[in-house]
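Data availability (excerpt). The following record was deposited with the supplementary files.
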Amino acid sequence: MPVEIYRRGLLLVLSSPSGAGKSTLARRLLGADPDITMSVSVTTRAIRPGEIDGKDYYFIDQARFDKMRKQGELLESATVFGNGYGTPRKPVDDWLAAGKDVLFDIDWQGTQQIVDKLPNDLVRVFILPPSAEELRERLIRRAQDPMKVVAGRMAEASREISHYAEYDYVLINDDLERCLDELCTILTAERLKRHRRAGLSDFVNRLQDKL
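Predicted structure:
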């Protein structure tokens, strides 16, 4: 029989400039691994076609967002392109304690805030596009934003990428399947780290008692 050892959950953060593919990787990972759940953020931006309130984001107004941030209800928060984004903290704490991993699709600002609050639970992965030209084409193909917004996201990309060295792992998304395989490998290895396997000491003690 397999040996079951309790472990604390981990926080897997994916960051990248817009269009590098982190949202696609996140969806694929969630579909392939039942032991990880997506953190659903609150945001003040307008809902996009095809998005579902409560699944993609919790869409709230600025007043509610400001109140949540002031009362410490957000694990991290940031303003991106004039819109507020943040992660409700209580569900994350509950998932970690239950041994459930939590996936985050956030930028470097939010990541840094989590580092300050839950450093031992955090695994940071930065996703790079294969080239600036490919990044621009991906943003255009999304057809969700006007060209003015695409230009703004391209200008922001350089600043986002400058924070790559703050992450534990950096992947280049030139091939989606390979990048996903690399991401799954990272997750498997991080789950096996000794400090996350909270039940390991009890198992070792029982093992030693029988020797």
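Summary of structural features: The domain at 11-39+102-209 is CATH 3.40.50.300 (Rossmann fold).
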